[in-house]
Amino acid sequence: xxxxxxxxxxxxxxxxxxxxxxxxxxxxxxxxxxxxxxxxxxxxxxxxxxxxxxxxxxxxxxxxxxxxxxxxxxxxxxxxxxxxxxxxxxxxxxxxxxxxxxxxxxxxxxxxxxxxxxxxxxxxxxxxxxxxxxxxxxxxxxxxxxxxxxxxxxxxxxxxxxxxxxxxxxxxxxxxxxxxxxxxxxxxxxxxxxxxxxxxxxxxxxxxxxxxxxxxxxxxxxxxxxxxxxxxxxxxxxxxxxxxxxxxxxxxxxxxxxxxxxxxxxxxxxxxxxxxxxxxxxxxxxxxxxxxxxxxxxxxxxxxxxxxxxxxxxxxxxxxxxxxxxxxxxxxxxxxxxxxxxxxxxx
Length: 347
Prior knowledge:
Layout: H1 2-14, H2 20-30, H3 40-44, H4 50-63, E1 78-81, H5 95-107, H6 120-124, H7 128-132, H8 135-147, H9 152-165, H10 181-192, E2 196-204, H11 205-209, H12 212-216, E3 223-235, E4 238-249, H13 255-263, E5 270-273, H14 279-286, E6 293-300, E7 307-308, H15 319-322, H16 324-327, E8 330-333, H17 334-337
Parallel strand pairs: 1-2, 1-5, 2-3, 5-6, 6-8
Antiparallel strand pairs: 3-4, 6-7
Helix pairs in contact: 1-2, 1-10, 5-8
């Protein structure tokens, strides 16, 4: 556990977010002063206000105490998180869709016919509403055009290049700067306490795996997502994997517990989401035996981020709010429970 603690704190120091107290904790841990490790709760969850922080740390302390009746062995400490709206922003459109739209614009010079064809015409004219009016068929064509017909290596390069250059239309931030600081701290805190952290998202798994390790410290093999078809082929003497224009598995809603079972093989004990697309994942997690923790991130902050829930076109949270008490889910109020939203806002 020490190695995980030191690694995460050093990352915080390199980001320039460490306080003198955090620097002292690093020194204490490095030099074996175990009595100071309890102060890590404050270090790891520094962007959380006290009431929300206490709910999390009280549970984690109970399940990691080997003398407690709530103890969970380390091999069973599986924590799963949705991505869009849970670990990073998702408004006004899912960021993966923003990537696909930018790819259409990049590819358009080689396809002059798109200027008169749906669904490309409205996209090239900046008419997002017109594109969305095409429904699932338009979205399917968009994703097939920009996410398939290439090797997995080529797609990975395109996503990474986009991450380095593209910016959000409202904040002007690079998309990977719109990850949530409090959730970064939560991921690190859980890992320091012996949890394995996974992403379980409706987003495309290949899109996420290109950047999640750098952004969240979650390696590609701990990312579960929607899958397109794929084929193994030889290009000369080189074997390649090609992405095919078909949906192989949709990792959303009831698909999420299926994806967890297939890819992780254990029922999680901790789950975090933000919308009814995560409802079944939290339900599956919370109804297992022993101690369980479920949380919904409630987007209530129209000043620092966005405010939306029951009637949103993206990230609708309805059933989750209604059934939170039934399943003892924690509702995280972003406006009240988070001191900051994005990294580099730390004072």
